[in-house]
Amino acid sequence: MITRNGIAVSPGVAVGEALVIGSEDFRIPQRFIPRRSVESELHRFRQALRHVSTEIAQNERLANEAIGLQYGAIFAAHLQMAQDPKLISEIEILIRDRCYSPEFASSRTLRKYAKQFQELGNAYFAERAADIYDLEKRILRHLLGEQRESLAELTQPVIVLAHNLTPSETASLNKEFVLAFATEAGGRTSHTAILAAALEIPAIVGLGPFLADMSGGDTVVVDGTSGEFIIDPDDDALMRVNTVRQKYQSVVDRRQQMRDLAAETSDGTRIFLMGNIEFPQEAEQCHQKGAEGIGLYRTEFLYLGRDVIPTEEDHYQAYREVVEAFPHQPITIRTLDLGADKIPGWIRRQYSDESNPALGLRSIRMSLADLTMFKTQLRAVLRASVDTEMGVMFPLVSSLLEFRQARMIVHEVMEDLEEQNIPFNRDIQLGIMVEVPATVMMAREFAREVDFFSIGTNDLIQYTLAADRSDPQVAKWHNPADPAIIRMIDLVIKAADEYQIPVSVCGQMSSDPKMVPLLIGMGLRRISVSPHTIPAVKEVIRNLSIEKAQAMAQYVSTQELARDIESYLTRELRNLVPDQSH
Ligand code: PEP
Ligand code: MG
What we know:
Elements: E1 2-5, E2 7-10, E3 13-20, H1 38-66, H2 69-82, H3 85-98, H4 102-119, H5 123-144, E4 158-162, H6 167-171, E5 178-183, H7 191-199, E6 203-205, E7 219-223, E8 228-231, H8 235-256, E9 272-277, H9 282-289, E10 294-298, H10 312-325, E11 330-334, H11 345-348, H12 364-369, H13 371-384, E12 389-394, H14 400-419, E13 429-434, H15 437-441, H16 443-449, E14 452-455, H17 457-464, H18 483-498, E15 503-505, H19 516-521, E16 526-529, H20 534-542, H21 546-557, H22 562-576
Parallel strand pairs: 3-4, 4-5, 5-6, 9-10, 9-16, 10-11, 11-12, 12-13, 13-14, 14-15, 15-16
Antiparallel strand pairs: 1-8, 2-6, 3-7, 7-8
Bound molecules: phosphoenolpyruvate and magnesium ion.
């Protein structure tokens, strides 16, 4: 039994059979073959290798002709590797003597060499390791051919293990068969993590390298509440996991009973508690958990997991579905936040390669660069806004001019609709995400012009502390308890209060129960959280008095270190709600 700890991002405990996803999202199936199939499997392997060689030779020719001999040489090196007699014989011995399947034998052997190169730790050898992984990918593609199993087409329950899952892959996971997933990469506020929680699939990310030693079919445990990951659990561990599962369920049941109670502090202050959604179907889930509206609808998921541009009608239907769940409550639709990690391949191809996509043409910048796409979305939002309390907000706004441009486009679309006699809500509110440090510094000027603020702490932390939200190596820097972040939020709340506009926090910070008393103590009265955390957040609010929250915020404002603030807030949370789920 091996236990590892990663970043818990979606609660719940699952025990099941591992499905190891290799590169290109195919699984490396069945570890062993029957002895009688050895000859036919060897034949299959040699045939695959022949196809691989032909393919590489073609690539070499193409590269030579199109971009020059020095690039063709890259493929020449691949070809040499694919035809290396020592390598081939090593794989064949595993097939013949150990009855490994060709997929498993190839993968094992090539990964062994790739790992050795990687461990040499210099850039040249790291590239050679990448070449070997590339060869592995090609061989597997040919071996698996039609058998290649896509994540979306599972037929039995599994726990998915992968180096990383992109947000689109996560969005396409079939909840019926994916009991949980665990990845080597990923951070707490990565979009993959947010999606896992949205889909209610228990998940751990940022486990660090563990896949090289795993095989499909191993039994694993994923505790998405504590971050514990167990390979080959023994009986004691399984019993312990079962107890954790029961305790988790009893806390869930207790919180569910509060569904119809108001999100109100113990001394009677109402907090407006809303849900964040990625998919329209989640609106119903928010409703069931007692949300009072949708504070953030991340519409870019209409683009992920499909390979054609959504039409105005696709947008419209997706927005109306949310309106049906919340006909008389606020719904805040965010315009496309495509770019960075949320970008389907077919859109990426339209833009030049970005070496630093988080700082590239993402979000409102992309919308303003592609007005046809932007206007299509805005038309649908406006059409869906009839008889609703709808707001539109623009992501990643970094200057006043950008907001003014976006507002002007909204007005143009309104004029078009008017000309065509298509109804819409003229009072639709226009707000911004505050998630770039420059916008915090200009918060007073923005507050004069916008209808509302929604603070996106996930990106705000990433850009303020220079810590990638998806990179587990810098997870300890990506911390909402950092005093710099708390001061920034304070600035934004004060600017909003001065100009009397609503302000909420919709980043993951407000979904973290220990952060909620601090935010309320700082004066925040609106929060928008991941649907599955609504009951836990409501419980904290109902156990809290404003006086206590203000005293906590006052204390935190005197602290200089994230570490001290975090442990203080954790202690206070235990006092407020003694029986947490773990
Ligand atoms: C944020 O950045 O905090 C936010 C809510 O937006 P997203 O997570 O979609 O980038
Ligand atoms: Mg953001």
